[in-house]
Structure formats: structure tokens, C-alpha cells
Amino acid sequence: MFSFKNVGELLFVQGKSFENVSYGFSSRIGGISAPPWNTLNLAMKTDDSSSNIGENWSRYMAALNLEAVPVFFGKQTHGTKIRQITSTTKDRSHEFDCLKFYDNDRFICAGECDALWTDEPGIAVSVFTADCLPIIVVGSGSHPFVAAIHGGWRGLVSKIIHRTLSTIASTIPFSPEDVTLIVGPHIRNCCFEVSSDVAETLDQNCSGSIKPNKDYVGKYLADLGMMVGDDGADFGIPAGQIYICELCTCCNEEHFYSYRRTRTADRGSMSSVISIV
Ligand SMILES: [Zn+2]
Fold it and tell me: How far is the CA of 188 from the centre of ligand 1 (A)?
């Protein structure tokens, strides 16, 4: 279901396609940034040059046919703040230390949040990841909406998907049967090793999501995609409308940035973008 798409040299991942929705999960291929950010770095808080980051963003948005669309993103904190984005959202009151590269008309920070949603066409919402789960939501009922959710293990334990959908449901009517969840490339259970205390928390939250790491006594491997499935099902989304990408960011160095693999902030980030068109 998921596949790499090429536009020129630029590579991104897509899954199921939808009418009137454009989205993508970026890779690290097809940008201009030099090591250690090579090459399609979209993160705005690195020491990479702002002109490189701007060019990378322009290429990526063009590849998604969203050249003229403003992109909203949040200051991600592994929390559960959720923001509705409209054409008048201009939250620039805070000092946002991450923002070296900041084009007021095109790249707009919506303040602290780990989930952003909109029901307006021509607005892109996005999340940054480099191992965490980028979760794209498509609501395709009579009142369409889209959302982008940053899902780390803390956010998933806090049921951020359920919280986001409940928040949207308090504003616009929709049925869980109209919702599709698409989880892009993230650290999979081949690589996401956790200690026993985190494993216990995850297992209590989602039974079966962890297994012992047979190579390291006392360590466990966690399947965060399974937690998305549980959280989505808990909201009532049909299992056949929850898609989990099998590509692992950590063991696929050629294609993806990974915090776990590099263990440093001196690396790039991917961005997952979605817009009603
Ligand atoms: Zn892996």
C-alpha cells in the first residue's frame, strides 16, 4: 500500500490516495543540505542553513503540488495539545526558539501542539519526525477535514489520536467510519528498544505491543504502530481504514533521518504534510 514516489530526484512516501487531499511523508532524498543534514532536511531548529532548509521545503511542497499553500506546524513537546488551524491562525505571540527559518507568509508556527487539524482547503498542516510516528488523518464524510499528529510513545500512551478526533468531533460532525489513519515511516519494533519501566507502561496501555529483546536481557522491543491501531479502534475507526507503514526509519539510513540511530540533534528531520485541495 505504501510506496516511494519520485518527483525529479526528490523521494517521498505515500499510501492510499484520496480525492481532494494531497499528502506525503518526506524522506531524506532530493534536497540540498550538506552532512550531517543531508539532504532533504526540513527541520527548522538545526544549524543547517536557512536557505538550504527553505529550498528543501520549496522542492517538497512542489512535489506534493502544494507550491502556493501555507504550511502550519507546531512546537512539538510530546504533549497532547491540539490546534485547529484556519486561514486566520497567526500565532506569533510566543518566542519560538526553534525558528531560525521563518517565512511569515508561508511557514507558520501554530504554537505549542503535537496535533494540528483543519477543515479549510488550501491550508497544509504538518508534523516533524525522525523516528516518532507521523500520523495523517483524513476525514472524508460530508464535512471533510485533515489532521497531522506527532506520535511518540508518550503521546500514544496519552491517547493523542482519540483526543484529537474527540476535539474535532466537538467542532464538526463526522462518523468514525469516515476516518482513515495513515502512519508514515517510523521506528519499528526491529529497532525501538525500551527499558523495563517503559515496556511496562506500554504493555499496560496496549497489551502485546512489547516483546523481550532476546539479544539483551532486561530490554524490550516496542511496536508503537500497534498502539495506533488500538487507539484508532477505540474511537471506532474500522481496522481496514488504519494503515501502518512498514518502513523503519532507524534501520533505513539511506532514506530516513533517525534520532535513535544518530543519537544527536545534529541531523535532519522529515516532515509529514497534508492539505485539502
Ligand atoms: Zn528498524
Answer: 5
- Divide the 277 residues of the chain into consecutive groups of 10 and give the mean pLDDT of each group: 96 97 98 96 86 92 94 92 85 45 68 94 96 98 97 96 98 97 98 96 95 92 96 97 98 96 88 98
**What's the CA-to-centroid distance between 174 and ligand 1, angstroms?**
36
How many degrees, rounded to 5, is the angle at CA 72 between CA 69 and CA 73? 145
Distance from Cα 30 to the centre of ligand 1, integer Å: 22
With CA atoms as reference, report the closest residue to 183 among 158, 202, 156, 207. 156
Residue 190 Cα to ligand 1 midpoint, Å, equals 4
Q: Is the dihedral of CA 244, 169, 234, 237 positive or negative?
A: negative
Rounded to whole angstroms, how far apart are CA atoms 207 and 189?
Answer: 15
Please indicate, yes or no, whether the overall pTM of this predicted structure exceeds 0.90: yes
In 3D space, the residue among 141, 166, 155 whose CA is nearest the CA of residue 228 turns out to be 155
Domains of the chain as residue ranges with CATH: 12-186+224-276 (3.60.140.10), 189-222 (no CATH)
